[in-house]
Fold each of these.
Amino acid sequence: MNSTFGLPRHVRWRIAIHESGHAVIGSRMGFYLREVRLGFEVQGQTLIGGGAVFEAPKNDQCELAKRFPRDMAIVLMSGAAAERVLMESGPLSNGWHKDFDIARIGLGWIYKGRDHSKDCLELFGQAKEAIRKDADSVIRVAEALIGTGSLTGDEVARLMAQGLDWRPPSNSSQLGPHTPLQPRTSQ
């Protein structure tokens, strides 16, 4: 079950926008998205938030940041950028700091011994621009993510490519990860 369902809708929406920003921009930049989801349970503890998981060497997102530092920095910053652009405010919590930390790790492999603040601001600007250009896709993916709690990379790609007017099936409370998307039907 999606562990964010008990949260207020505005909090779930913000998390969905954030994670959809990562998923859409990362996919557009050519990274292979395995899954995007809301809420995780780790060793019996529910963690509020979510994640976009890209195919990575050694299953380590930091490895992607090391191999593709500037591109991954934009992808990592696109979650906070989506909140800033689409919700007209900054990130809800400090969870986004992990995204920036991973970006700085990657940038450190190119710019050793240098302050990355200016680079991060420049790349954050590029992430905001990417979100502006793909806002419709980010919103579609966030809406679907709210309904299902989890989407595969293929489902995200379909939403991005087809621009489905989407809603979860009527039995959405029974949905688990990877539930097939269904086009909206007239009511």
Amino acid sequence: MARYEGLGVDIGAFLPKLQSAMEKRGYKIGHTMTGAASFLIEYLTPTKKPGVFGSKGTISVKGTRDNFAVIGIREDDEELWFIVEDTLIASAANPQAFRSHTEKEPVKMPATPTVRHRLPKSHANQLKRCQDRRVVQDVGLH
């Protein structure tokens, strides 16, 4: 799954462009379903033998023109990702906002506050004596 934001892609106009691009690359388009803000394409992958097709797959696009997701493409299917993203850039009102599905945002770790606990005086003295004993034992001065 990949999410695209800020591109300004008309989802309804994107479907025929994507179908055309896939057919030019040898994919056989089976069934398509459209909704108000989504579409689904069922396809057969091309093989090296003419007239013979490989596995069946689906691509689903859902969302609004500035915030949508492409679902159903395997991460290792580089050719299909290239077709989809190339068509996205060509269809975008704001292509500068494009970020490939392979560009991962760095995970930001939330800052953890440092909490210092103050030991009661009796505990602090016991801790100090234990540390002093260890130093004496390490040096060999018992």
Amino acid sequence: MWKQKQFDGSELGLSNSFSLLTLETIPLPRFEKNMIFLRSGHFRASFAPTGKTGGGAHGHLEEFVRTDLSGHRIRILLKTSKIPDLCLRTEAFVQWIAQKTLETQNLGTRIPAVHDIVEIKNGTFGFTMTEISGSVLCSQFLTTTLSLNHDLLHILGQTAILLQQLEEMIGLDHRDLKADNLLITPTPSTLLGPLGPFGPLGPLQSPFTVSLVDFGFACLGDDGITAIDAGQGTLPLRDPCPKEGRDLFHLIVSLYGISAIRASLNPRLRTLFTEWLTVKGKPCMGMAEKWSHSEWVYLLTSQKKFTQPCCTPAAILDTVFTEIASEYHSEYRYR
């Protein structure tokens, strides 16, 4: 499906429609002197730097105010690579199609929208995306909240709903989902869960909103096999995509690896984490406590036969809704 599908590139400043077969060769707009020019030579947008920078191990982020031809202004982030050979075209495309997919479900703000994919200089590339203002990293949020156990359930629930949509609609696996790749904004959220025998579960009403970021290792699958690989061969070529339970297992490992979170788990959540982190009868809690040595979890989940049924979006949602209902009935009983 993916390799032959044609996409309209005009929204991204591309002069032609493209497919995944042509994505790596299609001429991109040029980013020069804080301006973007189309290949035709026409001006597309200007960028005023704010002085804010950031990023992770592989990518560099710089904040700009983007002004387009109509005069519309928006704060954006320009992502460029810290690794010369790492091309960001595929990552930008995966993020773009993922955001567009959630947009069809009125969830488009849960992934930063991609505005431009550009050539910068010397064959290096970058892309711009909407900044999610007012957000903090999930790891920071959970280590400062006064209701960690309750909020943790809502973070897992919101994330599972987003992942379920992306898995079912485009076969996406994030493959690097961890606490630092979730952003939390203090905007109330209401999400419907999956369909149950009597209609949608939920709603899941939370005092904050969860968003997904950093698709640098993500994949899109055709018939369960990787068709698009933003990680450019980091994982095996025929790595199953999506792989059952991988993304939420990664997230749960990263959460358990934060000592302040681990120490604050109530007995019930501690039991659930033990279940989630036991793979084929082998407990992984000890390894998860050493999250800074993260290679082990990628080695484990990259194995072709890896599966963790209790960490699928559907399984996590079933657990989350059960636990939240139990919380509600307990509070009601003692009023």
Amino acid sequence: MEYVISSCRVAQATTDEEILQARTARQYVMNCEFYCSMFLLPILNKALKLGCSKDTFVSHLRNAKGLNPDRIELLGVGFDRFLAEDYVSCIHILAVQVEAWIRDLLYSMGGQTTYVKDQIAHVHTVGTILSSELIKRAFGSRVWSYVNAILNDDLAFGLRDKVAHGLCETSEFNRNKAALLIHICLLLTNITLTRA
């Protein structure tokens, strides 16, 4: 079973365990796409018909714990791009800003978001941030699995790395993926911070 990004094979599952992991991740992706189409998008459409706007979204974010206030306006711009059906811009903004928000959460809980190597400070990867026990505990297993699949897991969506490294196919910048990132934003507003 091959894993391909932008027409280039980047990995190949060869062992039974790797093949099972790859199939499980692909099934999870299909489930997310299905639930997004059947439930999340209709709920977002209803909210928009009832007057949900960028201002409503931003106002909701202001109540979030552990979110750097400077990040709120950027997240609002991402939502505004969703409303304008500019999914390329929406996904480019939200994928990176959601990662930064998770870093903010980890830092707020006393976790490490950087490390020093050769006397130079480096930021941890999104995978390392998501692997933090503080993040796993704060998110709970279901939210953690969802966020990890959408942002980090290359066998699933892995949007953060695909977007940041220019590996997305044009077809991947769609309403469903943008809605999944908005859903993550809404989920993150409900996270309860725990200290290390």
